[in-house]
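In response to the reviewer comment on reproducibility (Comment 2.3), we provide here a single inverse folding case reported in full, input and output, so that an independent group could reproduce the run without further information from us. The structure tokens appear first.
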């Protein structure tokens, strides 16, 4: 995947050096998750074709699937019109959410404000991460 120097310069990072990233399944259009990248994570993603994010809670690079095996192969990277949000079109292996669900967007807010989980976990967090359970992002 190649992003020219001009396009790299067009990415508008926050004051904290981060840019929000949406990961979307390339063939179904399903929105899988939202995460953050810093410049180093973006460069690694471009170089390897595998999603690498910045974990704000861990304070380090987070290579998607490094502990769970649930990886994202990046097929395309898009910038929004302002350059302040990225969209990754990915081929997701397994589940994207640390709760064991396919997508992180499984809570639906109803007309009266009630929140309902509209999908069940496909795999337990313990099966993904061992005894540590759900990692912090």
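Designed residues, in position order:
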């Amino acid at each position: 995947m190649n992003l020219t120097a001009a396009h790299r310069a067009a990415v508008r990072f926050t004051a904290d050096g981060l840019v929000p990233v949406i990961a979307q399944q390339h063939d179904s259009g399903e929105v899988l998750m939202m995460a953050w990248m810093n410049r180093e994570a973006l460069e690694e993603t471009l170089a390897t074709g595998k999603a690498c994010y910045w974990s704000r809670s861990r304070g380090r690079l987070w290579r998607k699937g490094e502990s769970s095996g649930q990886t994202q192969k990046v097929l395309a990277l898009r910038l929004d019109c302002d350059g302040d949000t990225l969209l990754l079109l990915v081929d997701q292996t397994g589940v994207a959410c640390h709760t064991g669900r396919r997508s992180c967007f499984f809570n639906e807010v109803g007309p009266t404000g009630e929140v309902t989980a509209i999908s069940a976990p496909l795999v337990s967090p313990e099966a993904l991460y061992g005894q540590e359970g759900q990692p912090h992002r």
